[in-house]
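Propose amino acids for all 66 sites.
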């Protein structure tokens, strides 16, 4: 997840670094976090995964809400 003040961007990649699906831009609020959760669930279902590892590129304090 690339963090910013008002919105963030998430990408899904496999263990080889190959992108899986389209990125998600989401807002830094409850609505955006819900969209992120739903996107992660959809990616897991689509690719038949039961676990996910989330990486964050923190910028200042903007990642604290996550």
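Proposal:
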């Amino acid at each position: 997840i690339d963090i910013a003040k008002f919105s963030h961007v998430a990408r899904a990649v496999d263990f080889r670094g190959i992108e899986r699906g389209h990125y998600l831009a989401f807002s830094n609020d409850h609505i955006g976090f819900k969209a992120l959760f739903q996107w992660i669930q959809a990616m897991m279902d689509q690719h038949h995964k039961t676990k996910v590892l989330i990486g964050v590129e923190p910028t200042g304090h903007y990642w604290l809400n996550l």
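The chain has one helix and two strands. The first helix runs from residue 30 to 46.
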